[in-house]
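lol ok so funny story. i was supposed to be doing the assay writeup but got distracted and ended up predicting the structure for this chain instead. priorities right. anyway since i did it might as well share w the group, maybe its usefull for someone
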Amino acid sequence: MVTFRIPSGLREHCDGRATVDVEAGDLQAALKELATRYPRCADRVLGPDGAPREWVRVEQEGDWVNILSAACGG
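and the output, tada:
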């Protein structure tokens, strides 16, 4: 399991959640699952190719993934 820490500026697109747990074997699969569950959040974090947008930094620390973005105040 991977847990995303959702920055405050994106929580409105994730049902107000500060964290989101997904079952995934790697970071790419986790990002895909996040996009499936919360497409409005994914639109702001991921580009059309599924990779993080240029102003977004995704950092994985073990089972935690931090989304840091100038666009969402991170």
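The radius of gyration is 11 Å. The chain is about 25% helix and 25% strand.
back to the writeup now i swear
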